[in-house]
Design goal:
alpha+beta, 7-stranded mixed sheet, 29% strand, elongated
């Protein structure tokens, strides 16, 4: 949101105050300022001039030769604007002046000398209009500095909208001015408003509101009728302020509604009174097509809150008006709406329609219903300044459905001092709260605080909120940090969180993996592009992107998205993420949520087999380091997802339970990413692993006697698993076996024909003595015999 300091100065006297320091103070106390723009700083020397004559330039279809009078001299100027005319007074950049930081110099155009430049709104930096030059009022003085006529000079700062989410009172300049008045100790000027009681004897408008007594969608609807609108264009002050704050000027009445919204934070809407003479606020009874002001036909669901005239809807409540009832340049009378709607209902409607408007952004913050009357009174006041001939032809019509509860907070000074950590004077406390428009009564050290309505909708409700108000205005940087005395107790560690951190560190440091962060829903466009078919699952209602609404059941597609995006720029891409997956039961009630590690490995230089073993090494390391357990693997009997390889997919088994899988990516999917690449994905259930108790680690002294290593090369069936070898070794019950491990696998179908050769290294030793040859040979022969019993031969 953009805030104009010129606008703020309408309500607070800032003479003698450094504006940039003030904006910094605002950041530290109220809301984050993202940037500052100084308008007009790079423009100088632009004056008022009058066109005395207009001639077409020979051999040019659009250029005109003008003679302009600056009040001191008459100059020839070449201009291509279509709206030049004799007698018009214009914004003229004379030679030597600066516009947007560029110095204006004498130029040769179409063989003619041009001694300056007649400016458009866009060139002067006060608007987007570049269709013609600025035509000024007839009563302006020749040679007058344009900055005395158009308020070009301004300092505008941008406030981060997220930091205003819980401050609905700050979505307008007057609310910001209130904060600045409190920060500077200056007085906040009251708003100049129209006295609406002057019109109480006029006829009331027809306004009806359909409302649920407990949860009304429309909390308040206020309206007035204005006729005899003769002016069509807003003053320069209004147009420039709107532009600097991110809005474009449309016409006087549309500009006025936007101006009040930016000033007070209260959205308003003006209907053409010829098309809307009465209003009913009610929901749609069936799905309906509706054309909004942006000329888009939108499909509205049954139950959407709408503004109706006698027979049809004319606006989506709190979001956008309808095209059929819009204000045009021919409009002379208007039905003025100032309303308050339920914040949740407006947010749901705007999200469902993917229509984020300035009005909806404010309504969904829970505005104060008391603003509707103030906004109308302010609108009438400013409109009279812009167009003196207007006539108010109705009384203030008001349907007030729901008022927020009045909030009173009791607090004592000692509690304030303890909470802030600094003793403040009672005078400072009262002054701070009074400047923020709280009503205060004091009885000794006890303070009774009445919360103003614009802070009572959801912002201030308890003593802690009052502490924050006082502390931030006093200045957090003025509070000296002090060490408090607390009873220290150890924090119980979360096993799953510890596991998550451990595996992230392992994958990043040992394996050089890159962590990614993604959305928890599938990307429909990428699924289609990569040929990934996903099962139906829990869906997001009103997703940001309509098609991307299925919550993921597997992490692997997310890993493939990252690989698809990055593998084209590098020879390998290895990524991981600990994210959430969902399993919907399709009963309308239950859905299980899991924390899962997703791994994606891709390479142009490594084979599928190498990547599978790399993934296996990662899973083994994670489980061994964190649970001191060994993992086994088995082929999937049947793959469940189309991106999995039908043969090279393996389940991760721990304590006879499935904890995840490792799978080569199916060639049909892989080829769409890169046909030359090898790609493997893996998943591990982190929360399930975190629930398991860690096996106790047993330490054993290293023998001081000499040990012996020997290798056995075993010829086994191609499909035999290594865990079968481990079982045979365990059953052999060798007396002197210290350890053993696999060191090599040899496969050659042509030579071994359905077999493979594995080499296992055994280490024998004793803690009491050096083994004799007979003892070593005894254990070795026992092993060989047991392997023979299981039809495993030994090669020498």
């Amino acid at each position: 949101m953009y805030i104009s300091m010129n606008w703020i100065k309408d309500f607070v006297d800032l003479d003698g105050i450094d504006v940039e320091k003030l904006i910094y103070q605002f950041t530290m106390s109220t809301a984050e300022v993202e940037g500052i723009t100084k308008y007009g700083e790079d423009t100088s020397g632009v004056i008022v001039a009058q066109i005395l004559s207009v001639e077409n330039v020979e051999n040019s279809k659009k250029l005109h030769k003008l003679i302009v009078d600056t009040g001191k001299e008459k100059l020839q100027v070449i201009c291509g604007a279509p709206n030049v005319k004799v007698g018009a007074k214009v914004a003229f950049a004379q030679v030597g002046s600066k516009v947007g930081g560029q110095e204006i110099s004498q130029a040769m155009l179409a063989g003619q000398i041009s001694n300056g430049m007649c400016l458009s709104e866009k060139e002067l930096g006060i608007g987007d209009d570049h269709s013609g030059i600025i035509i000024l009022e007839d009563d302006v003085k020749l040679g007058e500095n344009i900055k005395n006529i158009i308020p070009i000079d301004d300092v505008v700062f941008e406030v981060d909208n997220k930091s205003l989410t819980n401050r609905p009172d700050l979505w307008g300049h007057y609310g910001i001015a209130r904060e600045i008045a409190a920060l500077t100790g200056r007085k906040l000027k009251p708003l100049e408003i129209e006295d609406l009681t002057l019109y109480r004897d006029l006829e009331a408008l027809q306004v009806g509101v359909e409302a649920d007594d407990e949860n009304p969608l429309c909390l308040r609807y206020s309206a007035m009728r204005v006729e005899n609108v003769t002016q069509k264009i807003s003053s320069w002050k209004v147009k420039v302020r709107l532009f600097y704050c991110g809005m474009r000027s449309i016409n006087l009445l549309a500009d006025m509604t936007n101006y009040i919204m930016l000033e007070l934070g209260q959205p308003m809407h003006a209907f053409d009174e010829k098309k809307v003479s009465c209003v009913n606020v009610k929901t749609l009874k069936e799905d309906t097509d509706f054309i909004t002001l942006d000329s888009q036909t939108r499909k509205l669901d049954k139950g959407t809150l709408m503004i109706w005239n006698e027979k049809e809807p004319v606006g989506i409540a709190g979001v956008m008006g309808g095209l059929a009832s819009e204000i045009t340049n021919d409009t002379t009378s208007l039905f003025l709406e100032s309303a308050n709607f339920d914040a949740v209902a407006i947010r749901k409607t705007a999200s469902k329609l993917d229509l984020r408007t300035d009005a909806a952004a404010r309504y969904e913050k829970t505005l104060d219903p008391e603003l509707t009357e103030l906004a109308i009174a302010r609108f009438i006041k400013i409109l009279k300044e812009e167009d003196k001939d207007i006539c108010v032809t109705s009384s203030f019509t008001d349907v007030y459905i729901k008022k927020y509860d009045h909030i009173t907070i009791h607090i004592d000074k000692d509690y304030i001092d303890r909470s802030i950590g600094k003793e403040l004077s009672m005078e400072e406390i009262i002054t701070t709260l009074t400047n923020l428009e709280y009503k205060i009564s004091v009885d000794g050290k006890n303070i009774v605080i009445e919360v103003p309505t614009f802070r009572a909708t959801k912002d201030v409700s308890q003593r802690a909120d009052i502490i924050e108000e006082i502390a931030r205005i006093h200045g957090y940087d003025n509070i000296e940090p002090k060490t408090n005395l607390w009873k220290i107790a150890p924090v119980q560690k979360d096993a799953t969180r510890e596991l998550e951190y451990s595996l992230k560190e392992l994958l990043a440091s040992k394996y050089g993996m890159s962590e990614v962060h993604s959305y928890v829903w599938y990307n429909t466009e990428l699924n289609n592009e990569l040929g990934i078919e996903v099962r139906d699952n829990l869906k997001i209602v009103n997703g940001i992107v309509r098609l991307d609404n299925i919550l993921r059941h597997e992490m692997a597609p997310t890993m493939l998205y990252a690989i698809h995006k990055n593998l084209k720029y590098m020879p390998e891409c290895k990524v991981f993420e600990v994210g959430r997956t969902f399993d919907y039961h399709f009963d309308g009630k239950e859905a299980d949520e899991y924390k899962v590690l997703g791994i994606g490995l891709s390479s142009l230089n490594q084979s599928d087999k190498e990547l599978v073993y790399e993934a296996k090494s990662m899973i083994d390391s994670i489980v061994k380091m964190n649970k001191n357990m060994s993992v086994t693997y088995q082929n999937m009997e049947q793959v469940t997802e189309n991106f999995m390889h039908p043969i090279n997919s393996f389940e991760i088994i721990l304590n006879d339970e499935i904890f995840g899988y490792i799978s080569v990516v199916h060639p049909k999917v892989k080829d769409r990413i890169n046909p030359k690449a090898s790609i493997v994905v893996a998943e591990l259930k982190v929360d399930k692993l975190g629930e398991m108790l860690k096996n106790e680690i047993h330490y054993q002294e290293i023998t001081k006697y000499q040990t012996v290593n020997f290798d056995l090369s075993l010829v086994i069936d191609k499909d035999m698993r290594y865990e079968n070898i481990e079982k045979i070794v365990k059953e052999s019950n060798l007396k002197y076996l210290l350890e053993y491990h696999l060191i090599d696998i040899y496969e050659n179908e042509e030579k071994l024909k359905g077999k493979k050769n594995i080499t296992v290294r055994f280490k024998l030793g004793s803690y009491d003595k050096t083994l004799t040859k007979e003892e070593i040979d005894g254990d070795r022969e026992t092993l060989i015999q047991n392997f023979a019993v299981h039809s495993i031969s030994i090669t020498m």
